[in-house]
Amino acid sequence: MRIGEVASAAGVSTRALRYYEQQQLIASSRSTGGQRLYTPDTVERVRWIQLLYAAGLSSRTIVEFLPCVHTGIAGPEMIARLRAERDRLDDHMRDLAATRARLDSVLAAAEFGATRPAGEAAEV
Amino acid sequence: MRIGEVASAAGVSTRALRYYEQQQLIASSRSTGGQRLYTPDTVERVRWIQLLYAAGLSSRTIVEFLPCVHTGIAGPEMIARLRAERDRLDDHMRDLAATRARLDSVLAAAEFGATRPAGEAAEV
DNA sequence: CTTGCCTTTGACGTTAACGTCAACTTTTAC
DNA sequence: GTAAAAGTTGACGTTAACGTCAAAGGCAAG
Predict the structure, then answer these.
(1) Mean pLDDT, 10 residues at a time, chain B of 124 residues
(2) Do A2 and A43 have their domain in common?
């Protein structure tokens, strides 16, 4: 596959793919003319990359994780890193849930205020 | 309160507080000598700011939300914005949960491999 | 062969939320 | 009254993940 195909299949820009290659996140062979050629599974790989980015991992961390993500093989040290990131994710999700709850209560108050005809029972 | 007190109370740097003021997120009066003076509720406000930042909101958005967060008053348009952000948060949390699950299954596979004494039942 | 689209490398631009001096002035503590 | 600690403005630095030209070469179709 050429770069444009992979890009549209994975939903990213060609610029992003070149950037990923530079960060060692993906690899490519070259055509005789020098154009990048990818194997089809690159698309899946790129999707993983997007997921991990969205989860707040840096490209440096993703580079560490990707091999083990595909092979399912990891040394004890890598397992610890994986656990750490998973736990960080858990913490983050808890924080988000709390924030969401507070935002929701603000919303409830605002909606309640909005249902009052502007000044009903507003003062004593 | 002076800037240092607020900073340590809220767990941010003084630089951050000056930045927030520049972004209109917080306000301050000045001492005769020109030093910033804050009311105690600024601490709470800064905590809110941190929460919303962590939730992925930009300072521009936070500036819109903060008044209504404190007063509980919002026009219909603001209520729509609040709902939109809450929903975005929900979506994001779902994505994170999915990613966490996939990461966890990778971990499970890796841990399983690690419990095998290196080559037991690995090949047929 | 040539038109038109795709790709390549190189390099500068962008954005957000601060970090980090530097050179001073204010406050505080003794 | 005098250090030391804390604060002030101004301005440049940082980082990540790309965006956006620019100039030039590759590639399938007719």
Answers:
(1) 97 97 96 97 96 92 92 90 92 94 91 68 50
(2) yes
